[in-house]
Design a protein that fits this description.
The protein is of the alpha/beta class and about 160 residues long. It has a single domain, classed as Response regulator (Rossmann fold). Helix content is about 40%, strand content about 20%. It has a five-stranded parallel β-sheet with strand order 2-1-3-4-5, with helices on both faces. α6 links the parallel β4 and β5. About 25% of the residues are buried.
């Protein structure tokens, strides 16, 4: 009986590793249908555990305050819509930057927009709180890219 040695020792554990990469995602979008769709996509992906949705920047700040008070799960990743009424994505980012660094440390923020406006892309690049800019809608392939680019597996 031949013994098999894998040249890729992680390949058997890849699904296990993938399933633990992102514990919590916070989706911030004023559109209920978009939140519903994105929540479904994220939930289907093996690399993500919990998903919470809010419909405004203000509600997201309230959620983060609950995290600070140990009443909610800290997100590892925030998908943030840019164009929302009352408090848009840019305004949320200003308030996010004012939060205690112990709270915000380690949270990746990815702008999620239908905008292909180059000014939005440039503005996101200037904002230190923003880790990436992705066009809607989310897909499993986009989520694969997010994991690869922002949550690399270290062994």
């Amino acid at each position: 009986m031949k013994s098999q040695i894998s040249l890729f020792p992680l390949e058997g554990n890849w699904n296990r590793l993938m399933s633990k990469l992102v514990n919590c995602v916070l989706l911030i979008d004023d559109d209920k249908a978009t939140n519903f769709f994105n929540e479904r996509v994220v939930t289907k992906h093996e690399g993500f555990q919990q998903v919470y949705t809010v419909q405004s920047g203000l509600a997201a700040l309230e959620y983060l305050n609950a995290v600070e008070n140990n009443a909610a799960t800290k997100p590892d990743l925030i998908f943030l819509d840019i164009n929302m009424p009352a408090m848009n994505g840019w305004e949320f980012l200003i308030e996010f930057s004012k939060l205690d660094q112990r709270l915000t440390e380690g949270i990746k923020v990815i702008l999620l927009s239908t905008s292909s406006n180059p000014d939005d892309v440039r503005e996101s690049a200037k904002n230190h709180s923003v880790d990436d800019f992705i066009n809607k809608p989310l897909s499993l392939n986009l989520l694969d890219n997010v994991l690869r680019d922002h949550f690399p597996v270290t062994v």
